Automatic annotation (TrEMBL):
CDD domains: ALDH_AldA-AAD23400. It comes from the Bacteria. The active site is at residue 250. The keyword Oxidoreductase applies. Its EC number is 1.2.1.39. The gene is feaB. InterPro entries: Ald_DH/histidinol_DH, Ald_DH_C, Ald_DH_CS_CYS, Ald_DH_CS_GLU, Ald_DH_N, Aldehyde_DH_dom, LUC3-like. This is Phenylacetaldehyde dehydrogenase. GO terms for molecular function: phenylacetaldehyde dehydrogenase (NAD+) activity.
Length: 472
């Protein structure tokens, strides 16, 4: 397995790019090394972009049916290698193989790829009268640059690449240097069923050369699709301005959940836990702060803690591990700092002490207020602050007070009442009695500083096209 990992390379124009320099990829679960990845610069980026640009005319000219079949073939290829890719994800990202872990991520990647293959954007007739006929076409943009994060390395790469392919674009993909292995291997596999140059890859260590910035400024990349932090997304937007790139930016959030007084604490405990702690809290649309009505505050806390106590945290290849480590030291230190600050003013109901290595236990802290950093900063890790409220308008005001708005949730026994509360939340997606349960047929994106554009479904597919209107 180690030899295979260290042989993963880059693809340009359908062939492997031989590079001398490689950088180590850490295994956050063991503290060892997961493998190595190519460390390249501007010349290799230019080569990948040129390959994608050269492949675009033929790929964009293929029929809708041909592209659908090609995307289905990609889904088949990922599915056939799902276990191999899941092993790589666990090695470099840390999440367990089973449960809601790497195998689950690969299942989601296959499902998203298949659903996207079935989408289409046919010509629309806007007018057909004696005065004239007006037709609207969706045309592919050209080369799409994909920049993906470290939390779901395969799944998010599929979210970026498949709609680009389906709409007739070609791709240059750059994975996070924290988790490049599974993504690069997946692109090798894609090239076994796609024409040369349609999907290409680049990777680089964090260092003097900023690959993401170079992609954002590259004159031959027509669109950037980015998933990551708000600060990095803002830099992508700035560096894309000169070339007027199209953008889809899915950035950070600080999702609020609001528990109404009629909710059943026992019934919602499991959903609350997974809404907050899926992927160890390292999820853009995880619930990162929870507002609970005074009437049931203690009962909700008790039920949530009782469920969380049974969650095993451990190295990802251990069969009984339910949650893995925090993926990297920087994120671990941020979580530890925020929890340490929260302990000064709040009540630790569970966890609160760092484990060995990068392992941090699920941590639940009550007695939090809007002034606590754990509430107003995105922790992106296994720590959930609970805020008691008595007035719903005040809870909504606090939930909406931040300058981000990705997702939110309302928990209640009365779905109609919950829906009315949901409409008042300032975020792109709101779930009732669950959190973060995204679907491939529902547009997903943020408001305020959480995003620009949407992903998934027909609305997401449209983001990869320009409109052309023909007056016939």
């Amino acid at each position: 397995m180690k030899d295979t990992i260290d042989s993963i390379g880059l693809i340009a124009a359908g062939t492997r790019v031989e590079t001398g320099a490689r950088f180590p990829v850490a295994n956050p679960g063991t503290g060892g090394q997961a493998g190595t990845a190519p460390d390249v610069g501007q010349a290799e980026l230019d080569r990948a972009v040129a390959a994608a640009k050269a492949a675009f005319p033929a790929w964009s000219a293929t029929s809708d049916e041909e592209r659908a079949a090609a995307c289905t073939a990609v889904a088949d290829k990922i599915e056939a290698h799902a276990e191999e890719l899941a092993q790589l994800v666990t090695a470099e990202q840390g999440k367990p193989l089973g449960g809601i872990g790497s195998q689950w991520e690969l299942g989601g990647a296959v499902a998203w790829a298949r659903y996207t293959a079935g989408l289409s954007l046919p010509m629309e007739v806007l007018q057909d009268t004696p005065e004239g006929r007006v037709e609207m076409y969706r045309k592919p943009l050209g080369v799409v640059g994909s920049i993906t994060p470290w939390n779901f390395p395969v799944l998010i790469a599929v979210w970026h690449i498949l709609p680009a392919l389906r709409s007739g674009n070609t791709v240059v993909s750059k994975p996070s240097p924290m988790t490049p292995l599974a993504s690069l291997r997946m692109i090798e596999l894609m090239n076994e069923v796609l024409p040369a140059g349609v999907v290409n890859s680049v990777s680089a260590a964090d260092g003097a050369f900023n690959m993401g910035a170079a992609m954002s400024a590259h004159p031959d990349i027509a669109k950037i699709v980015f998933t990551g932090s708000c600060g990095t997304g803002q830099k992508v937007m700035q560096s894309s301005a000169e070339t007027m790139k199209r953008l889809t930016l899915e950035m950070g959030g600080n999702d609020a959940g609001i528990v109404l007084p009629d909710a059943d604490p026992q019934a919602i405990a499991e959903g609350l836990f997974w809404g907050a702690f899926i992927n160890n809290g390292q999820t853009c649309a995880a619930m990162k702060r929870l507002y609970v009505h005074d009437d049931i505050h203690d009962a909700v806390c008790d039920a949530l803690v009782a469920y969380a106590r049974n969650i095993k945290v451990g190295e990802g290849t251990q069969e009984d591990s339910v949650l893995g480590p925090v993926q990297n030291q920087m994120q671990f230190d941020k979580v530890a700092k925020l929890v340490a600050q929260a302990k000064e003013s709040g009540q630790v109901l569970l966890g609160g002490e760092p484990g060995e290595g990068l392992f941090y236990p699920p941590t639940i802290i009550a007695g939090m207020t809007a002034d606590d950093p754990l509430v107003y900063e995105e922790q992106f890790g296994p720590a959930l602050p609970i805020i008691r409220y008595s007035d719903l308008d005040d809870a909504l005001a606090q939930a909406n007070a931040l300058d981000v708005g990705l997702g939110g949730s309302v928990w209640s026994s009365d779905r109609a009442a919950a829906k009315e509360v949901a409409k008042r939340m300032e975020c792109g997606s709101v779930w009732i009695n669950s959190h973060g349960m995204i679907q491939p047929n529902a547009p997903f994106g943020g408001v305020k500083k959480s995003g620009f554009g949407v992903e998934f479904g027909e609305e997401g597919l449209k983001e990869y096209t320009d409109i052309q209107v023909i007056f016939a």
